[in-house]
Write a structure and sequence with these properties.
Blueprint: H1 18-35, H2 43-58
Length: 60
C-alpha cells in the first residue's frame, strides 16, 4: 500500500493555487479513507476533515 502522507509548514509555497490546495485535500481525504479501512459512506466527512486539516496547515 502506498503512503499518501505529506507535510506542510512555514516553508510551503505561499503562491499555492486553488488547484494545488484541492489536490492536497484530495490526497488527505483518500488518506483518511484508507485509515478507516477503505469503508465507504463517509466521503463527505473525509473531504471536509481533509479541508480543515490542509487549510489549517496552510494558514500557519
Amino acid at each position: 500500500m502506498a503512503r499518501t502522507s505529506f507535510k506542510l509548514g512555514k516553508s510551503s509555497n505561499p503562491a499555492m493555487t486553488n488547484e494545488d490546495v484541492r489536490k492536497l485535500v484530495e490526497k488527505k481525504a483518500y488518506e483518511l479513507y484508507e485509515k478507516r479501512g477503505r469503508k465507504g459512506g463517509h466521503s463527505m466527512d473525509d473531504w471536509l476533515e481533509a479541508e480543515r486539516i490542509i487549510k489549517g496547515k496552510i494558514s500557519k
